[in-house]
Amino acid sequence: xxxxxxxxxxxxxxxxxxxxxxxxxxxxxxxxxxxxxxxxxxxxxxxxxxxxxxxxxxxxxxxxxxxxxxxxxxxxxxxxxxxxxxxxxxxxxxxxxxxxxxxxxxxxxxxxxxxxxxxxxxxxxxxxxxxxxxxxxxxxxxxxxxxxxxxxxxxxxxxxxxxxxxxxxxxxxxxxxxxxxxxxxxxxxxxxxxxxxxxxxxxxxxxxxxxxxxxxxxxxxxxxxxxxxxxxxxxxxxxxxxxxxxxxxxxxxxxxxxxxxxxxxxxxxxxxxxxxxxxxxxxxxxxxxxxxxxxxxxxxxxxxxxxxxxxxxxxxxxxxxxxxxxxxxxxxxxxxxxxxxxxxxxxxxxxxxxxxxxxxxxxxxxxxxxxxxxxxxxxxxxxxxxxxxxxxxxxxxxxxxxxxxxxxxxxxx
Length: 413
Hints:
Layout: H1 3-13, H2 39-44, H3 46-49, E1 54-58, E2 69-75, H4 79-86, E3 99-108, E4 111-119, E5 124-137, E6 141-151, E7 155-164, E8 170-179, H5 185-191, H6 196-221, H7 245-248, E9 251-259, E10 262-275, H8 276-283, H9 286-293, E11 298-304, E12 309-315, E13 322-329, E14 335-342, E15 348-355, E16 360-368, H10 376-382, H11 386-410
């Protein structure tokens, strides 16, 4: 199987959002407007940013059929130091584990054109970028724009904003949109099915980029910690769904509890656009819920006991055995899904709902699992790349939220 095909098959495996999402008129992803987080939103997310990166995945809107993804993270380094990391692409391969090379083609004032090669154990990708540096300083902050003008990931644009957060700390907000429909044949065929593949790759790859920039800036500032931290038990996150209500009208939030290189758990929160009754009907049905966990999966209840409902699930993908057993423990409050055997046998997922005025359900999901707890090909894909593993987990949690929403809406029909 060609290496590029392998990676996108694997990414689809981890995407739980239905691929047949509605599409409107196409726009140029390298030029379409990218949103960010305003000061009020950054303040609202501050308690979560203290624990780790935050990801906002916007909903589709009339301006563009490819929603943007916005990332934010606190960095224990001055704004000038963070800006120095972002501004020099030729230095990226020295600290980005999967980036094999950067070839600077030209420099004109504040603009730099460069080609890159990005790869892990099983595959490699190439692309063509143009970086533009805007005027900035340590007090006002910095802004950088990078356009992807071609390559195997298509076209797109990212905008880095570095906000000073005191003399020795920064808040980085990183907005991204990627369009694979203009890429090579394989990626065009996959992306033609809908936006889920675009979103999954956006989240996984951009999360890696953000985490590696954060780590390098902290190394340069002398604040990066290499100590090993024992993972904490899975615990319900402290999330104020009422205060986040308006922001969740804009998109879904992924909250990462990250300590050094140790990812304790990942939380996803969102508005379901359906009643609590409809949402919990999906959550309490193992066959529905099992299919929501991973895109393309089929699930079947094999045993009902006082402990819960045990079900088998699998994804029919050539060359991969992806499947296993899980148990769903019903509850009028927190619903638990735990892996038993096979793929993700050590995974733990918890879900609860919140009632908004008018009866709409908010969904809170928190989980702990390791993508390396998977078939051999996926383990080789991760290949010890901790940041890539974290990106995979974040993308998967987001996909579960999107799939649950979609299935709850289908119950209306």
